[in-house]
Amino acid sequence: MKESLSYKKRISNTMLDFDRRARSRKQNRFSKGDPAQKFMFQVLFDQNMDWKLAWKNVELFETRIGTLNVKKIAKMPLGDIHRAMKGDKRKSDPDEWKALHRFPKKLSSWMKGTCKRLVKEYAGDPRHIWNNTKSARLIEERLKEFPGFGQKKASMLINILANDRGFRNIDRTEIDISVDSLVRRVFLRTGLADFDSKDDIIQVSRKLHPEFPGILDLPAWRIGQDYCSPTWPDCNKCPVGMICKKKKWRTRDTD
Ligand code: SF4
């Protein structure tokens, strides 16, 4: 059953209240001070693993290959990048030399491909992807030309730029929600999304918040991570628990 627009507005407003409270307690996700290329690699790593681990593993990667310099990585043999990525259990501290990703081979080639494209098109500096335009759509299109970047990572990076890294000039009407498994689960269970499709989640976010469709990204992501687990959602403590329709069956079989 489709939910009414007024119900969806109540849910989204409650989510935004929750987000404001979390922000006032300084629970931001991301370090604002990281250099641009490190930030871009963190987003690239953020797939099929907890985001904190993905963020931390970029630092371990840097320790292993000795640099995060885009031009150096672009020239580095793929085998060296792959060795650092997959780790080596024979090293004296196996914990320090664990694999940095579930798919080290794929990520190694994304990493090298990303650096090569950065050198060729953006003088080795990711800030040239976003600093010379206000258009979030254009930034998203540019990012989607990099290996490993689809809608989810591109809009996640843009949302972080606008929300956490102080990139104020960007046209927020063009920033979409980043649809990952957590956001999808919350949109389906609350009934914000009528259909289980990325497009529907993007469209309803645009309809609810045309001035900034991506504004629901962080609260939905937080609720998905901290309350709305695949099998044991904590509806009693959830910030939208009093009004949510709790349609848990919509994701149980597919999470
Ligand atoms: S945890 Fe419960 S109340 Fe919260 S979004 Fe999920 S199903 Fe709804």
Quick take:
The protein is mainly alpha-helical and 255 residues long.
Strand content of the residues, in percent? under 5%
CATH topology grouping of the largest domain? Endonuclease Iii, domain 2
Q: Helix share of residues?
A: 40-55%
What is the makeup of the main sheet? none
How far the N terminus sits from the C terminus, by CA atoms, comes to 21 Å
CATH class descriptor of the largest domain: Mainly Alpha
Rg, alpha carbons? 19 Å
**Number of domains as seen in the coordinates:** 2
Poorly predicted sequence stretches spanning 5 or more consecutive residues: none
- CATH homologous superfamily of the largest domain, by name? Helix-hairpin-Helix base-excision DNA repair enzymes (C-terminal)
Bound compounds, each kind once, are: iron/sulfur cluster
Number of helices: 12
Which structural traits does this protein have?
255 residues; mainly alpha; Endonuclease Iii, domain 2; 2 domains; globular; binds iron/sulfur cluster
Question: Mind explaining what this structure looks like?
Answer:
With 255 residues, this protein is mostly helical. It folds into 2 domains: 1-28 and 172-255, Endonuclease Iii, domain 2, CATH 1.10.1670; 36-132, Endonuclease III, domain 1. The protein has 12 helices and no strands. The longest helix is centred in the first third of the chain and has 20 residues, at 5-24. The two termini are 21 Å apart. Bound molecules: iron/sulfur cluster. Iron/sulfur cluster binds at residues 186, 189-190, 223, 227-228, 233-235, 238, 240-241, 244, 246, 248.
